[in-house]
Design a protein that fits this description.
Layout: E1 8-13, H1 19-31, E2 35-40, H2 42-47, H3 50-57, E3 61-62, H4 75-81, E4 85-91, H5 93-100, H6 107-114, E5 119-123, H7 127-131, H8 133-144, E6 148-149, E7 153-156, E8 162-166, H9 170-180, E9 190-195, E10 200-203, E11 206-208, H10 215-226, E12 230-235, E13 247-250, H11 254-262, E14 270-273, E15 280-282, E16 301-303, H12 307-313, E17 320-327, H13 331-341, E18 346-351, E19 363-364, E20 366-370, E21 373-376, E22 380-381, H14 382-400
Parallel strand pairs: 1-2, 1-4, 2-3, 4-5, 5-6, 9-12, 9-14, 12-13, 14-17, 17-18
Antiparallel strand pairs: 7-8, 10-11, 15-16, 18-20, 19-22, 20-21
Helix pairs in contact: 1-3, 4-6, 5-8, 9-10, 10-14
Bound molecules: cytidine-5'-triphosphate (CTP).
């Protein structure tokens, strides 16, 4: 189930070339079972027909303060009352200026002025217009009102220039919407997450690795960001897209992962090590491809450093350390052993043999073990599992006291 399921989104479309992209966003929202109502400005209608939005959303499109049916004479009040959030995409310089001045001279601005629900806005315009101090000041004013800014992308613009001002991809705006419906309980917290496998090279074409897909670690990064954390994600080689708003560092070997982790350690942060770090690496790297000259091949392996154990030994003040344990038997016993041996606050144990809990699947079923006991979670999506882990981390932070989060 998506967290946007059943959410009522009022989409304000304004007059930018990027208005056509908003049609794709409506499709994406509807696909997640969100309910979308579109309000268009007059200028937006010059770029895309209202019919497109009514066909895609399955709802009437609102365009004018005075020309809609009689039962909607109070449309500007009712529309926001009947929504959970407002998304303005694309938001032109003109609309942003109008909103920052508290203007109410068209239906969209009136709806927003009357609204008491969260507002997310996605500026899209020529880069000079965006950089102009007036626009920058207007954007800051909207943020000051509590509206949530989705930063425009940099790239080639419809006007032929290259710069800031592009409407970002849907997944960026989607994250901003999802964040509205999550608690803000990791606000101000720094979170460091590791994900994926590591690869230990043997020769220029071969490596030792494991089946980790990185999905659990990426789900942890996305959900922590939505809950307000400042997230750094250090990942081994995986085929997943960078989560929006997260600092992503891509590494290959355990040694590189260790360096990336150690250089980002800070007191008071939460460290979650969901990476499946290779325990061993080839003792010697062969600079040239190993040829099949003999019958068999003996590989000499040497132990990689246990990154998490090292963090547990040199724990910085106020750090919360969370480990993962991938087990095929004696899950609780092994989890408890690793919790103690690595000096952790929490360990997340999962069964790597389960069909829906193993590698490269969308679900997980884990047991959380800390010093006070065990909690077995049901089978959940990886994002839902991640949220349950954050719930536990937040209560650990509260138990320690001094956490206002
Ligand atoms: N870990 C680590 N560095 C390693 C190996 C593991 O930081 N070289 C971390 C993992 O990211 C995970 C935890 O230690 O959070 C447990 O990893 P796991 O592979 O389950 O256990 P190991 O300690 O490697 O023990 P074993 O392989 O014997 O089960």
């Amino acid at each position: 189930m998506s967290n946007l399921q059943g959410k009522r989104i009022l989409l304000g479309v304004t007059g930018s070339v990027a208005a056509y992209k908003a049609a794709e966003w409506v499709r994406a929202l509807v696909k997640e079972d969100a309910m979308v109502t579109v309000v268009m400005t007059k200028a937006a209608e010059r770029f895309i027909a209202p019919l497109t939005f009514s066909a895609l959303s399955g709802n009437p499109v609102y365009r004018d303060m005075f020309s809609d049916e009689s039962e909607r004479v109070m449309a500007h009040i009712n529309l926001s009352r009947e929504a959970d959030a407002i998304l303005i995409a694309p938001a032109t310089a003109q609309t942003i200026a109008r909103l920052s001045a508290g203007g109410a001279d068209d239906l969209l601005s009136t709806v927003i002025l009357a609204a008491r629900i969260p507002v997310v806005f996605c500026p899209a315009m020529n880069s000079n217009m965006l950089a102009h101090p007036a626009t920058q000041e207007n954007i800051r004013r909207l943020q000051h009102f509590g509206y949530h800014l989705v930063q425009p992308d940099c790239g080639s613009l419809a006007c032929g220039e290259v710069g800031d001002g592009r409407l970002p991809e849907w997944d960026v705006a989607r994250e901003a919407l999802l964040a509205l419906f999550e608690p803000n309980d990791l606000m101000g917290k720094k979170v460091l997450i590791t994900a994926g496998p590591t690869r230990e090279p043997l020769d220029p074409v071969r490596f030792l690795s494991n089946r980790s897909s990185g999905k659990m670690g990426f789900a942890l990064a996305r959900t922590a960001r939505r809950r307000g954390a400042e997230v750094a994600l250090i990942t081994g080689p995986v085929s997943l897209l960078d989560p929006p708003g997260v600092e992503v560092v891509r590494v290959t070997t355990a040694e590189e992962m260790e360096k990336a982790v150690v250089s980002r350690l800070e007191p008071g942060q939460v460290v979650v090590k969901s990476a499946a770090v290779a325990d061993f690496k080839p003792a010697v790297y062969q600079a040239h491809k190993i040829k099949k000259t003999s019958q068999g091949l003996q590989l000499d392996l040497e132990k990689n450093i246990d990154i998490l154990k090292k963090l547990g030994e040199k724990r910085l003040e106020g750090q919360v350390l969370v480990g993962f344990a991938a087990e095929s038997r004696d899950h609780t016993g092994e989890g408890l052993r690793k919790l103690k041996e690595k000096n952790l606050d929490l360990i997340v144990v999962n069964d790597i043999l389960g069909e829906q809990t193993g590698f490269d699947v969308e679900t997980n079923q884990v047991t959380l073990i800390d010093r006070t006991g065990n909690t077995a979670l049901p089978l959940l999506t990886k994002e839902a599992t991640a949220n349950r882990i954050w719930d536990r981390v937040v209560s650990l932070l509260h138990e320690r006291g001094g956490y206002g989060g």
